[in-house]
Each structure stands twice: as structure tokens, then as C-alpha cells.
């Protein structure tokens, strides 16, 4: 008798008709073999991987994707629930039967002439009761290697699946990388994703946004937990105490930098647990606990340098885990190492750009794609928390929400209570970035930074957040931040990066009941002098502006939120409507 896993592999082989089937064991030896294979394999008109200079960045390989395939494609991403209402206005919807027919037509036989890689993986530590079993099949060796970095792949996963039928199924085929024949289809009720025509990040590494957010958020809704687009950090203060935080920002708004932060104050230290996704469960003691289901980081390269994120540079230079991948960065031809804007002050004279052309700086275009990425094991991170592998996760004391906003949103404020926090998170707006295809810099609502990742109706999701608040015993404090506020001349007023630790310090002091706050129309702002600005080169006037509430701006904000809420009709929980009404009154007073 074959196991459900073996049956699935057989079915997939019959469906995709690859020339070869390879089941990954997850070993380093295998990864080295696959990296070798990838350097010999042609896909989309070029070799899949190129070896980079291992002396500069150990175990590093370079991948260039098709220029039409450099980010998630939200307009080609669908949630296929039995009814359109279940998917909600936050998702593109297709009837599951219709979606399958469409995908079957594209995918049947699409691995002919290729190898089908079978990736059994666990999201979360295999010892954790919160971890989930998954299998992805793919014809991309780049995806296979990336998944080895991003999750726990191989023998242990196959053993954990055992005789169970209960595992996520991810079907991925790169096809001809044609945006007209590209779709990412989610079937939450069947624990299934079908993805065709893209080899990039969140479209292709199905354990990431597809499973660990869209499908998992739906599981969490049914099972009483939350799958969130959040980093997890522990912040140690001089007395040795560690306070655990979650932070949610839209893609490419600095989550990875915050996850690896070096605080400016002596005696403070950030312990890294996760840089993108957190699963939140209520522990036996009634507190909210977080695990990071991932095992690696798929971070934005541009802007990462010794000044902005030295810990990440150390992570990339660590030789612990094989391999580290660089995708769509530039290459410095002088020493065959990856390069991107912000890595060094000077642009090297001899660069090949992300499209494989000799770089000409005078053309005014960046050498690395703005959404170019590194893929690196979290075990390479020197600030990895000793609690990272704790199967129970870590107890959360604070949740930080944020967005990228030139105006309106103060540097930081605290929400009065859990429900006010849920309301505040539900109205987050953020300027769009290069992490998704489409226009950049446009403000759109991005509740909980989950708009592109919530696998069901966001009205139901908001209610689920409110319900969780009733069940958690010691509720975390909820904060809202904005590192990106600009002055009249369009200049950032806050230095960001390491100085963000000043804001975190205020939060810790609030959690401990040690720092003051003053009421405002939108929540609690730091009291005069409560935010430690020692040694900071920002004038008092600018600080005041950073922490100000402009009622005229907020009137416009309220109008935008009303428009957004209207899309969800009566799915918006009553409590959130009341909060919006109160906010409207306060800013119109
Ligand atoms: O491409 S990913 O979805 O994995 C990265 C991101 O947008 O956060
Ligand atoms: Mn992300």
C-alpha cells in the first residue's frame, strides 16, 4: 500500500508528465548537486544559476528572472472559494471548477522535457504542534533550492506527513513565463494552490505567501488562530529582560531592517525570530504566542548596506547554510560578487545590470531591480534568537503596525485598547512599492498589511481579530508607526533605520508602565520628553511635526476609509464602524 504522499507524487507525475521525478531529501549534499544542475540547466533562454564569488559571499549563486517576471502579480492571483462573498472584495475570485479547468488546460503535460522536483516541507519547526505539513511539486530547480532555504524540506517532512492525507498541495510549473498565461489560484477549502507561468518569489515559492498567509489565514479563521504578515523580534533591555514584538508593514517597507535592528542605546539588543510571516496562537496560559513558520529570509536587496543593516550584511557573509541566492541584483564584474544600490557608497565601475547588460550609470536607471532579493537561511543570522526553535513560540507583549505615508500618520501612537488597535490596523493606508507589479507610490488601504494576502473576506477577518481579543488573557499593546513622514520639501523627517529603536524603547516603557502618553483624536502620543532623543540630530520643531495630528489631513483620511469600508457592506463589524464614527466626530470637532 502506498502512502497518500506517494499517491500524490504518482498523480502529479501522470498529470505533468515530466521526463524525471526527483524527491528532495533536504540534505546539503543534495543542495550542492542541485546547484550544480542549475548551472547547467537552461530555462527561459539562460542558465538558471551562476556561481558568484564565494570569498566575498560564501555559497552564493545568482539568478536572473524574466524581466516580465520580477514581482508578485496581484491581478493574476485568485482565491477560488465556493462563493464570491467568501473571498471578499479584497480578492480576485473565480469559481473553483472554472479555475481548475483553466489551470488544468495550462498545466497538463507542462513538465514534458523537464524534471519534476517534489518538495515535502514543514512550515514551522517539525516539533511544534503549530507547524503544518506541505508538499510542492515544481519544474524549477531555482524554486526547489529556494524552498530549501525558506522552509524545512525533505526527509523529516516526509516522515512527519507519514500516512496522513492532511497536507497542503502546491502545484507549480514555470511554463513559458508569459504574463498572458500566468495565474496563481488558491483553493482554501481544498488546501491547494495551483501556480503557472511565473518563477518569482511569492508567485512560485508556494510555502510563502500562498500557503503561509492566504491558505493559512483561512485555516486560522476556522481553527482559532491568526496567520499574519509580521516580523517577530525580542528586544532585550539593559536589565536583561526580553520583550517580544510583532510588526506588520506592507512589502518593501523595511520589515527585514527592523527584524535585524541594532538599537542605538547601549544595553539594548534585538533578537531576530522572523522577518515576514508570523502564526499567532493562544498558548496554554492564555497569552498570545508567535512562531515564524519560515526558515529563511527573502529580503529586498536595494538599500541594504553596512549603514542601514549591518547584521544582514553579516548574515549574507555567513557560510553556515548552503546556498544563498541573489535574484535580479547587479553583478560586480571586478570580483563576480552581487551588487545593488545602497550596498556601497560608490557604484563599482564594472557592473552587469539585472537584465544582463553592461551597466551604464548615465542612463539614470538602477543597476539592480528595485525588487531584487536575497534568499538566505535564518540560521545564518548572527542575531537569531535562541527561542527561534521553541515549538511553543514566544509570548507577545506588543504589536506594531505601520505603512509608508508621506503625510497624516504620526511617527508613533498607541491604541487605547485591543479593539481600537484592530480598528487602527484595519484602516492602514500605504504607498505601493516595487514588491508588487503595477503603479508605485499610490496610497491604498492595506489593513494589517494583509490586503494582498488574506485568503478570505476581510470583513470576516476583522471580526476574527476582534474575537481573538476576547479570548487572549493578557492582551498585547497595539501601536501604529510611520517612519516615512515627509516635510514641505519632500524630505523624510525621521532618520529611520537604527533610530527606530528610540520608538521601540518608548513602547517597552509603555508596556512596563514607565513612560507617559497624551491623548489625541487618534490615540495616545508620546508625552513631551517621553521619546528618548538623546544624541539625535532632529530639531524639536521637526519632532513636534512628526508627532502631530493634522485634522484636515485626517478628515481626508476618514473619507478614504469610509470608501474602503463601503466595499465590504455589512461585513464590517459594528464595533469598527463605531470607532470610525467616533474618529470622524473627533477630527471634525
Ligand atoms: O514575492 S514575495 O511575496 O515573496 C515578497 C513580498 O512581496 O513580500
Ligand atoms: Mn512580505
TrEMBL record:
Phosphoenolpyruvate carboxykinase GTP-utilising N-terminal domain residues are 7-220
Q: Which residues form the Phosphoenolpyruvate carboxykinase C-terminal P-loop domain?
A: 225-585
Which EC class is this protein assigned? lyase
Residue sites binding GTP per the record: 252-257, 373, 404, 497-500
Q: Where in the cell is it found?
A: Cytoplasm
Cytoplasm as a keyword?
Answer: yes
Q: How is the cofactor bound?
A: Binds 1 Mn(2+) ion per subunit.
Q: Which residues bind substrate?
A: 72, 200-202, 251, 371-373
**What one GO molecular function would you report for this record?**
kinase activity
Identify the CDD domains for this entry. PEPCK_GTP
Keywords of this entry:
Cytoplasm, Decarboxylase, Gluconeogenesis, GTP-binding, Kinase, Lyase, Manganese, Metal-binding, Nucleotide-binding, Pyruvate, Transferase
Q: Single Gene Ontology BP term?
A: oxaloacetate metabolic process
Q: What GO CC annotations are associated with the protein?
A: cytosol
E.C. number: 4.1.1.32
Instruction: Say where the protein is mainly found.
Output: cytoplasm
Q: Which residues participate in Mn(2+) binding?
A: 209, 229, 276
* Pfam families, sorted: PEPCK_GTP, PEPCK_N
Role played: Catalyzes the conversion of oxaloacetate (OAA) to phosphoenolpyruvate (PEP), the rate-limiting step in the metabolic pathway that produces glucose from lactate and other precursors derived from the citric acid cycle.
Give the multimer and partner information.
Monomer.
Return the similarity comment: Belongs to the phosphoenolpyruvate carboxykinase [GTP] family.
Q: What is this protein called?
A: Phosphoenolpyruvate carboxykinase [GTP]
Q: Supply the source organism for this entry.
A: Endomicrobium proavitum
Amino acid at each position: 500500500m502506498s502512502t497518500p504522499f506517494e499517491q500524490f507524487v504518482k498523480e502529479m507525475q501522470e498529470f505533468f508528465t515530466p521526463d524525471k521525478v526527483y524527491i528532495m531529501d533536504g540534505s546539503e549534499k543534495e543542495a550542492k548537486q542541485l546547484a550544480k544542475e542549475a548551472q547547467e540547466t537552461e530555462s527561459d533562454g539562460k542558465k538558471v544559476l551562476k556561481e558568484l564569488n564565494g570569498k566575498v559571499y560564501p555559497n552564493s549563486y545568482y539568478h536572473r528572472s524574466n524581466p516580465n517576471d520580477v514581482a508578485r502579480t496581484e491581478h493574476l492571483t485568485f482565491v477560488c472559494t465556493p462563493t464570491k462573498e467568501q473571498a471578499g472584495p479584497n480578492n480576485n475570485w473565480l469559481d473553483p471548477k472554472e479555475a481548475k479547468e483553466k489551470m488544468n488546460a495550462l498545466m497538463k503535460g507542462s513538465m514534458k522535457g523537464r524534471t519534476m522536483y517534489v518538495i515535502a516541507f514543514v512550515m514551522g519547526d517539525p516539533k511544534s504542534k503549530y507547524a503544518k505539513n506541505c508538499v510542492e511539486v515544481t519544474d524549477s530547480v531555482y524554486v526547489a533550492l529556494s524552498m530549501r532555504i525558506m522552509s524545512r524540506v525533505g526527509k523529516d517532512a516526509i516522515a512527519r506527513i507519514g500516512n496522513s492525507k492532511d497536507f497542503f498541495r502546491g502545484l507549480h510549473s514555470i511554463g513559458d513565463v508569459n504574463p498572458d498565461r500566468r495565474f496563481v489560484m488558491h483553493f482554501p477549502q481544498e488546501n491547494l494552490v495551483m501556480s503557472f507561468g511565473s518563477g518569482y518569489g511569492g508567485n512560485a515559492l508556494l510555502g510563502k505567501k500562498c500557503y503561509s498567509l492566504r491558505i493559512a489565514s483561512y485555516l486560522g479563521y476556522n481553527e482559532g488562530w491568526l496567520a499574519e504578515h509580521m516580523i517577530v523580534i525580542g528586544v532585550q533591555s539593559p536589565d536583561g529582560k526580553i520583550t517580544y514584538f510583532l510588526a506588520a508593514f506592507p512589502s518593501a517597507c523595511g520589515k527585514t531592517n527592523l527584524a535585524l535592528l541594532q538599537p542605538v542605546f547601549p544595553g539594548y539588543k534585538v533578537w531576530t525570530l522572523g522577518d515576514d510571516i508570523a502564526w499567532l496562537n493562544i498558548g496554554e496560559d492564555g497569552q498570545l504566542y508567535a512562531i515564524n513558520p519560515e526558515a529563511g529570509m527573502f529580503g529586498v536587496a536595494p538599500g541594504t548596506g553596512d549603514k542601514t543593516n549591518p547584521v544582514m550584511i553579516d548574515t549574507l557573509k555567513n557560510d553556515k547554510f548552503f546556498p544563498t541566492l541573489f535574484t535580479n541584483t547587479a553583478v560586480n564584474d571586478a570580483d563576480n560578487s552581487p551588487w545593488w544600490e545602497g550596498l556601497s557608497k560608490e557604484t563599482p565601475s564594472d557592473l552587469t545590470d539585472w537584465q544582463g547588460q553592461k551597466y551604464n550609470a548615465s542612463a539614470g536607471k538602477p543597476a539592480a531591480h528595485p525588487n531584487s532579493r536575497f534568499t538566505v537561511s535564518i540560521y545564518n543570522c548572527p542575531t537569531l534568537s535562541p527561542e527561534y526553535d521553541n515549538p511553543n513560540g514566544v509570548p507577545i507583549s506588543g504589536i506594531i503596525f505601520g505603512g509608508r505615508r508621506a503625510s497624516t500618520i504620526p511617527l508613533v501612537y498607541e491604541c487605547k485598547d485591543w479593539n481600537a488597535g484592530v480598528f487602527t490596523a484595519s484602516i492602514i493606508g500605504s504607498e505601493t512599492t516595487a514588491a508588487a507589479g503595477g503603479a508605485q507610490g499610490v496610497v491604498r488601504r492595506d489593513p494589517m498589511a494583509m490586503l494582498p494576502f488574506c485568503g478570505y473576506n476581510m470583513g470576516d477577518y476583522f471580526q476574527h481579530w476582534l474575537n481573538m481579543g476576547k479570548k487572549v488573557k493578557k492582551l498585547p499593546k497595539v501601536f501604529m508607526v510611520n517612519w516615512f513622514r515627509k516635510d514641505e520639501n519632500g524630505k523624510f523627517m525621521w532618520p529611520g533605520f537604527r533610530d527606530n529603536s528610540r520608538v521601540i524603547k518608548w513602547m517597552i516603557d509603555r508596556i512596563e508602565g514607565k513612560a507617559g502618553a497624551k491623548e489625541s483624536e487618534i490615540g495616545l502620543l508620546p508625552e513631551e520628553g517621553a521619546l528618548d532623543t538623546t544624541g539625535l540630530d532632529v530639531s524639536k520643531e521637526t519632532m513636534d511635526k512628526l508627532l502631530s495630528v493634522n485634522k484636515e489631513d485626517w478628515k481626508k483620511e476618514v473619507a478614504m476609509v469610509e470608501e474602503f469600508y463601503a466595499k465590504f457592506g455589512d461585513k464590517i463589524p459594528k464595533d469598527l464602524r463605531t470607532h470610525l464614527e467616533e474618529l470622524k466626530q473627533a477630527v471634525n470637532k
